Every structure is written in C-alpha cells, then in structure tokens.
Amino acid sequence: MSIYGDYIKTVIRTVPDWPQPGVNFRDITPLLQNSSAFRKLIDSFVHRYQDMELDAIAAIDARGFIVGAPLAYELNCSFVPVRKKGKLPFKTISETYTLEYGQAEVELHSDAFREGDRILIVDDLIATGGTMLAAAKLITRSGGQVVETSTIIDLPDLGGSSRIREAGYGVFAVCSFTEDE
C-alpha cells in the first residue's frame, strides 16, 4: 500500500449490489472528481516508480488510461494502450482470457515495444487478475519485460493478485478492499 493508501481508500465510493445483487462496486469517480485526492493518487505511483528504470507504461483499457497517461508523463516514458479487441487501427497481437461469464480479448500494437523494454502495467483494479495477466502475456510476447503490475485497488478476496504473483509478476496496489468492507 502507498503512503496515501488509507486516504485514497476513504475517497473511493462503494456502491452495494451493483451491477448485480451481492456485488460491492468500487467507484473511483469521487477520487477523480477530488483534485487533491487525484494528485495524491498519481503521486503514490510516481513515488513508487520514480527511481525504477522504465521504458513504457502499458495501461489497460479504459480506466487504466486515467492513471497511465499522467504517470508516463511524470516518469518521462512512453504510454502504450492495451485495448479491447477491435479498438487499435494498426497490426495487433491479441490475448484471450476467461471471465466469470465467458471470454474477452485484449490487443496491443505489434510494434509497441522493442526487445528488452522495461514495462509497467497499470489498471484501476485487480479482481480475478485475468485482464492483467493477459496484458502481461502480450507484453512478454512482444519482447517487453514486465517490471511490475500496478493498480489503484486490489480486491484480494477474489484471488487476482495472488494469481498474478504466482505467475511471477510483482503487484503494487495503492489500496485494497476486502469483500466485507
């Protein structure tokens, strides 16, 4: 957790029973609307990564872009979008992953990275870890080296961060929520 993790957690809104009964949705909208909280959020990532050698931030569609773009700017590295299937205009590589209700696919431009580039993956939330692991596989296939995976929120009860660590990747989360919080 970051130095601002406890504060950031208080700004995130929990919406019970959305999008279906029994689900506690973690809404980052209040975090984005609060300029002080948003600055502390970006600072949390900057402080974590300012001394690491990074070539690019790979941000996952779409909420990962919210953190990924300002972080890439602050760290003076490139920004690469990992998009949902069919959203990139050039030659792509893709990775399919399993969801609770089926499958999804993410894509990356085939020329996004050079061999050995050091990449940080950013998203808003880790639940089951499928999207993050698919992005990591894409980056590895394209020649990049995943330095770490990072997110605003970790939901450890859903097992995603454990799956990501078991796959050999580090995980950084600004804050985490258990199911009963």
UniProtKB/TrEMBL annotation:
Keyword Acetylation: no
Record key words, sorted: Cytoplasm, Glycosyltransferase, Purine salvage, Transferase
GO biological process: adenine salvage; AMP salvage; purine ribonucleoside salvage
Catalytic activity: AMP + diphosphate = 5-phospho-alpha-D-ribose 1-diphosphate + adenine
InterPro entries membership: Ade_phspho_trans, PRTase-like, PRTase_dom, UPRTase/APRTase
Record's GO cellular component terms: cytoplasm
Protein's pathway: Purine metabolism; AMP biosynthesis via salvage pathway; AMP from adenine: step 1/1
Protein EC: 2.4.2.7
Primary role: Catalyzes a salvage reaction resulting in the formation of AMP, that is energically less costly than de novo synthesis.
Homology family: Belongs to the purine/pyrimidine phosphoribosyltransferase family.
Name recorded for this polypeptide: Adenine phosphoribosyltransferase
Organism: Halomonas korlensis
